[in-house]
Amino acid sequence: MFGPRYIKSARTMATGTWEEFFALHLPPPDFEDNRSLLKEFCERHDTYGNKIVLVTSGGTTVPLEHNTVRFVDNFSAGTRGSSSAEYFLEQGYAVIFMHRQKSLEPFTRHFTGQKLLDMLEIQDRGPNTSISVKPDSVDVLAPILLRYKAAHAAGAILHVSFTTVSEYFWLLRAACECLANLGARAMLYLAAAVSDFYIPKDRVPTHKMQSAGGAPIIQLHLVPKMLAPLVNLWVPEAYVVSFKLETDENLLIPKARLALEKYKHKMVVANLLQTRHHRVILVSPDISQEIVLTREEVHAGVDIESSIVCEIVRLHGVHMRQAGEAVSPP
Ligand code: PMT
């Protein structure tokens, strides 16, 4: 989009507070609808004593124009979040899947691109045309379809979506407000890739920037870290897991530990961009635990999220017992 020479360093720009961020950025147009959905979902599952996990997934954008033609994006395909959501459902959790619009979603993630159409065959008989699943694809499609139908029939998953970083934060806070009532039964699994830099709304031009005026100088500001109010104020009893993405191995664990010390939440899942699909490190205040898939597992299409979720669910159980929370079985 813009090369580094066009982007003036924001290093010297002071971070505004999270309250200032919300005061400056109005809620998105569909906010009240989403808030009602979140409220209904949390109240229903709270009544049954269920555990709820909020899974955030995909990257946030920072618009460079109000009528947005160009934007800065944070990298994330949504693999981590969408895959994890499936394993949380399997473990008996109700799942709020908060994802970047058009990023991967649970169940449909298995059929990206041409895959679904390639599994179907068509008998073209005019008005009596029929479509069926190819016999050798039934074994692939059936288990996923069964899990998808079961999750939806049970009302166990709610999808809400965001695009920009401010939409993400409005939804995140609203979800937290609804989850707070569940106390220790709530888990936050913050796998979305969230912008650290943005342009405050009052400095964003209305219309598409014109090249006739020369190369633009874009000054990015620091986004306040929402983990701070989230852990301390919004959901103080919940089990909060954040993710740390780095590209330099030497920074990974020190920065994960720094985050734990700073925000005092329960766990950081540390991963490198280059190896994130087969290696992660679960960093908690007491221990670091590496999860690595073998070459054979990678080849067999094993999801690393299955092991991540399994271990986090176990630790969430410990957290709930310590909080004296009783939970209905899955
Ligand atoms: O979707 P995939 O392609 O599978 O990729 C998955 C992933 C690599 C994106 C995922 O595993 C991951 O690491 N997600 C977190 C990426 C990220 O935002 O890391 P960070 O170091 O910038 O932020 C650390 C934490 O601070 C995040 O949990 C975030 O929720 C939080 N944060 C970030 C910015 C901000 N302004 N406020 C925050 O609270």
Question: How would you describe this structure in keywords?
Answer:
330 residues; alpha/beta; Rossmann fold; 8-stranded mixed beta sheet; 10 helices; binds ligand PMT
Tell me what the structure shows.
- By secondary structure, the protein is of the alpha/beta class.
- The protein has one domain (4-322): CoaB-like (Rossmann fold, 3-Layer(aba) Sandwich).
- It is 37% helix and 21% strand.
- It has helices spanning 18-24, 31-47, 79-90, 115-118, 135-153, 165-179, 227-234, 249-263, 295-299, 304-322; strands spanning 7-8, 52-57, 61-63, 71-73, 94-100, 120-123, 130-133, 157-162, 186-190, 197-198, 218-219, 221-222, 239-246, 267-272, 279-283, 288-292.
- The strands form five sheets. It has an eight-stranded mixed β-sheet with strand order 8-5-2-9-13-14-15-16, sandwiched between helices. The protein has a two-stranded parallel sheet with strand order 1-11.
- The radius of gyration is 21 Å and the shape is globular.
- Mean pLDDT is 93; it is low at 1-12.
- Residues 76-80, 190-191, 193-194, 196, 223, 225-227, 242-245, 271, 276 line the site of ligand PMT.
